[in-house]
Each structure stands twice: as C-alpha cells, then as structure tokens.
Amino acid sequence: FQVEEVIITxxxxxxxxxxxQMSMTRLTMKTIETMPAFLxxxxxxxxxxxxxxxxxxxxxxxxxxVRGGNADQNLILLDDAPIFNSSHVFGFFSVFNPDAVKNVTxxxxxxxxxxxxxxxxxxxxxxxEGNLKEFTGKGGIGLVSSRLALEAPIIKDKCSFLVAGRTSxxxxxxxxxxxxxxxxxxxxxxxxxxxxxxxxxxxxKIFLSTYLSDDKFRFGADTTYNWGTANAVLKYNHIFxxxxxSDITAIYSDYQYKVYNQPESxxxxxxxxxxxxxxxxxxxxxxxxxxxxxxxxxxxxGFQPGTLKPASEGSGINPVFLExxxxxxxxxYINDEYKISPVITLMYGLRYSLFHNLGPAHAYLYQDNIPKxxxxxxxxxxxxxxxxxxxxGGLEPRISIKLGLGPSSSVKLSYNKMRQYISLISNTTAxxxxxxxxxxxxxxxxxxGDQIIIGYFKNFAENSIETSIEAYYKNIDNLVEYKDxxxxxxxxxxxxxxxxxxxxxxxxxxxxxxxxxRLTGWTSYVYSRSERQISGEFPxxxxxxxKYYPSNYDKPHNVKIVSNFRITQRWSFAANFxxxxxxxxxxxxxxxxxxxxxxxxxxxxxxxxxxxxxxxxYHRLDLSVTLSExxxxxxxxxxxxxxxVYNVYxxxxxxxxxxxxxxxxxxxxxxxxIMGVPFPSLSYNFTF
Length: 688
Hints:
By secondary structure, the chain is mainly β. The chain has one domain: Beta Barrel (Maltoporin, Chain A), CATH 2.40.170.20. 3% of the residues lie in helices and 57% in strands. It has 5 helices and 43 strands. Strand 13 and strand 14 form a beta hairpin.
C-alpha cells in the first residue's frame, strides 16, 4: 500500500507518536485495494485480518476475532448502522462494496466513550458521500462478481448522491467441483448502497444512507440458506459556531436469515431475525486545550429466536414459534481530550449504559440448588407489553495518556471498561446464518470486559518508518458458553443449556511499518493467549472441571507480512504472508460399543476435555501483480489489470478436524481444508 492514501487530510505524519489514541488503525479503500485478494475480490474484513490484533477462525470463516475475543464481541458499523453478519457466501467475501467505502477505522483498545455495546472492538466504516462537483464512477469485473458505483451532484456544491451495486455469478466455479453435492449447489449474492446528502447552508446538512444485501446458498438439491440485511440511516449535522458541532442520527437495521428444506415429506422453513431501531445525539465542543465529546443514545432490539413451519401441505413437520424477545439499551457519555502540555496529553471519559429486557414475554423460574433443565422449572412468570422483566447497567470508564519522549517517540497507556448486553449463541467458531443472537434476561447476565494496554512508539527516517510495541491484558466476566450436548436451535429453555464464566486474554504485539518509497508495507509478530473458566456450582455446569482452558481463538504465535513494491509507474507487485498457531479443538481419545435391548451395537466416543488439542498450524502466501493503464492528462477513463494468486503454494490449511469410526482402532482424525489449492484470478478495475 501507499501511505499517501492511508493518511487522512489534516492528520499529522507523526500522529502515532503525537496522538493520545492507541490500538487504532485507520485505512482507506485505496490502501486495501493494493492487497492480494481471494479471487480478486477486494475485501475489508480479510484485509483487517492482516493487522496484528486481528485473527479469523480460518478460511471461509465470517467475522473476525480481536485479541482472543469472540466474533460477536466486535461492533461493526456501516454509516452508524450495525451489521450483524459481515459475510457473503459463508465468509468467503465481506458485505462491503469497496467502491462505496471511504475509510475504515478499527479500535481494538483505548476505545472512546462514544462507543459501547461490545467488548473487543469497534469497526467504524464510513461510505462516500457523493461528488458535489461532477459525475464520476468506478467499478470492477472479476471472476465471481462485478460492481459499479456512481456519484454525481444533483445541485452542484449543494446536493449529491452515491449509488453502488455488486452482484455475483459464481455458480460456474461450483460446477467444476467433482463432488456431486457441490456440483449441484448454487451460491449467489448482491448488495446495493444508496446515499444522498443535502447542504441547506454552511451550518446545516442532512444525509440519508441506505443499504441492502442478500445471500442465497443451496447445497445439493435439498437445503437452501438465505440471509440478508436492510439498513437505513438519517443524519442531521448542525454547526452552532466555531466551537460546537452536533450530529442527530436515526438508525434502522433489519437482519433476517432463513433455512429451507425441500423434500416433500419433510419440507420446512426455519427463520430467525433481528430488528434494531436507534436514535442518538452526539456533540463536539472545542475549548482551548480541550476537545469535549458528549451525547446520548437509545436502542430498541427485537429478536426473533426462531420459527419452524412446514413448507408444503404434505410435510410432517410440526410448527414451532418461539416468542419475540424485546429489549432497550440507553447510554449517555462524555469524553475529554486535554492537551496538558506539549509532552502530555490525556483522554478520559465516562459512559453509563442501562439495559431493560421488556415484555410481553414469559420467564421460567428454576429450582434452586440443582442444575437448570426443563425438569427443574417450578413456575412461569408472565409480563405485559412494555413491562421491565430484568434490568442491568453500570459505568464504563475510559482513560488514555500519552507521554512524549522526544520528537520521534512516546509511551502510551490506556484502560477501558465495556458492557455487552446481547450475545451470539453458537457452538461454531464463526458467525453462520443459523447462529442465534440472544438478549440478556433473568438468567443470562451481560458480559463485561476490562482491558489495560501499555505501548511504546518510535519513528525513524522522518516518520517514514513506524515501529510499535503494545502489551495488553483483558479480563471478561459473564462469558457465554454452551454445555456439552447443548441444543441451541428452537430451544424454548435455551438458558438451561448455557453457562457463564470468566475469560482472560493477554499478549504483546510488535509491528514495523514502512510508509513511503518504492517498497512499502508492514510486518508484525504477536504472542497472545486467550483462556476461559466455566466453574459452575454443579459438575454439569463446569467445563474442564472448572479450570482455565484455551478458548476457540487461542493462537499463541502470529506472524504477518504485508508488502507492496512499485516496479514502475504502471507496474506494481504485492505479497502477503501470514502464519499462526493452529486453534484449539476437542478430540475423542477412545470409543466403546453399547449392545443391549435399547441400543443395538452403537459406538460411543470418549472425548477429551474441551480444547485440549490443536489443529495444524496455519500459513499462507498470496501474490499479485497490477498493471495500470497509461495515464493521459485529458483522459477520464483509467483502468488497471490485477492478476493474483491466493494460497500460492497450495497449503491445505485445516478449517476443522473430524473423526471417523474405524473398527478395531481408535477414532481416526481427518482435516477439512476449504481452500487447499492455489486460487488464481484476473480482475479489471476502472474509474471515470
């Protein structure tokens, strides 16, 4: 990548030294576009996975993991609207059209008080606003999808629009796969963005942003998965004067996911969903050496935990309808950045959040002193519309300090506390369309997290080379885990199959970045650990006898290298390499057979304690070459060809490990590799 395209206008070259913010990365799409990509598809999420603090569960995994946290502990915002599933095609591509995105900001620590609701990170994605001067466009044609974005003024210098769309045509790839089920499968997606802004005058401006995405995947001839997002954001920006600014924002987001099964005798339709309505007011006030940010927000959630109904008259499926779960989250915050002296800068803030689980609903009461299950229910409480079933809340302090050690180095320290009132209930390592989002209630407490970070930052060669060392420790309470053998889908007493406990993550991150010259890029090494402890009162409510064990995202060693070499003005070469320790897994170590009146020669496996083994280490090399067309001064159309190879040496990285029963020997391990061969691609990108 090239640093001139990373730096935002007005941001100092030495902001990593002079700024108080730490554990924050800001990129533009021009930076991300230079990285080699799977099948040539420029991808925001996969590019973030090359940062030191970020990992993924594996190839084809949706979402991402920050400093050992779960995928649901990341708040993903697109023009302030939440994205609950950031993937197309089960994680192979992200839902963000690169031609519509302006910049990407990821906070993994030192999170300002204006943000809340998740424990691990905030990913704030801002889209383009539309060109106020002239009609412009950009797009691309690849092997599996094409995209186009158009911007133009409606009223010059006053009102403009952005329209962007992307669609796929990937079935031809599935047809080349020998497996008959895959050959008969189909996979398609599209996403559309529309945005308009209007300036009433120099002090008043309004924005309307909408987004729609849809995925459909049919495996074989029987099962179809369908999921999609619909967002709308209305923002009013007002400038009171030289020192006071405000943003008033109304947000709507709807995420639906469905599963269809086609056989006539057993056909069904299963559906889940989340509805989000938000209203917030944010203010910024400048006062001498202070920058004061403050505001208030309210969120209304509506969770559909699952419905099951027959899809044909001849189906033998019995319908199931779980009642909707409603909740409200209110927050107020204040944050001050105070430049005490040229050497010392302090950023401190306080956020207070209040959560209500609301009726109409019913809640089960379970007998004390025995494990929760359906047999231990002793009563059912009924709650009317709007009645508060359960409340949670508390303070979330944030503080960061920067101490300058000279013109080219500084030390920074930060602490933040976060609260998370909704959780993703899953027994997989990544977000999938059939995972369940669950609100906190009488039996599920909100997760809380505390993180402390210390870092040393040093620049060389007139700020063209940046180096950093960051060490962190994160403690989490009320982590949500599932019991062994838990039933997660369409479970009216889901809380009885869930456990809550503690988590801890710690590590040290080294990074060196070269920002200018013909060779640019960065390299990083991270040592980190992520562990959990589920120590309930009863043996059935413990995992690994209540001792700490590795989380699903515990990968102690990580190495990442990102490089771009500008050969000539028209030719450039890019390479990415990533290595990580294999993630933990649970494996059977023996088996036995049951042969009696109830069970006829059934094989049962004895499993190890949870996450006591690891899948093989992960590593991958990606390469790309880009040829830009000659730039003529008066030629508006500009294009470039990119040839890339994903997984150059065909590493068969294991996404998961499974075991097959072989008579007379212990269960035999096999690994599932999703992308075990090199994937070449050719794409054409253009602007006009």
